[in-house]
Structure formats: C-alpha cells, structure tokens
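Work Package 4 report. The design task specified in the project plan requires that, given a folded chain encoded as structure tokens, an amino acid be chosen for each position. We show below one input record used in the internal validation round.
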C-alpha cells in the first residue's frame, strides 16, 4: 500500500511539472486566437501590441490588473464608426 501512495505522488508531481511547462504555450495560443478580433477593435499596431503583451506570462497578467485598476486600456479601441466602415470594406 505504501508503494502505491509513493507512485501516486510521483505521478502527480510529474504531471504537474508537465502542465507547468505547457502553460506559457497555452497562453500564447489563446493570444493568437484572439489576435484578429483585437486588431479589428484596436487597429493593427494597437492590436499587435496588446496581444503581444498579453501573450507574455506574468506581463500580460500585470497589464490586465493595471487596466482593471485604472479602468482604462493601454491601447484604446478605435472609434466605432471607423471600425464599422473598415469591416464593411469602405476605406
């Protein structure tokens, strides 16, 4: 029975190390998935900068905490009229 507990702890430790290593990559994949939408809302430069900061571990979390406290984005959204005209294909 003691051997089974030891194997369970060993397996749990190994699994947690694997998950800890994969977390930065999962965050980067989520950031890439939201890149198009963010670029449409904030413009090309603002969208890339916002997504780039969000994809870096700890930096993105810190940026989001500061934005929540300030109640203001570092990279503000474009005005809605410009956004709609670009989505419709009008320059």
């Amino acid at each position: 029975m003691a051997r089974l507990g030891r194997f369970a702890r060993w397996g749990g430790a190994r699994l947690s190390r694997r998950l800890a290593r994969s977390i930065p990559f999962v965050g980067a994949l989520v950031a890439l998935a939201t890149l198009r939408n963010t670029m449409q809302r904030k413009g090309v430069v603002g969208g890339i900068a916002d997504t780039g900061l969000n994809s870096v571990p700890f930096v993105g979390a810190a940026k989001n905490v500061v934005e929540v406290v300030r109640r203001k984005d570092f990279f503000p959204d474009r005005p809605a009229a410009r956004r709609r005209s670009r989505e419709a294909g009008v320059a």
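Residues 85 and 91 are 7 Å apart (CA to CA). Validation will be extended to a larger panel in the next phase.
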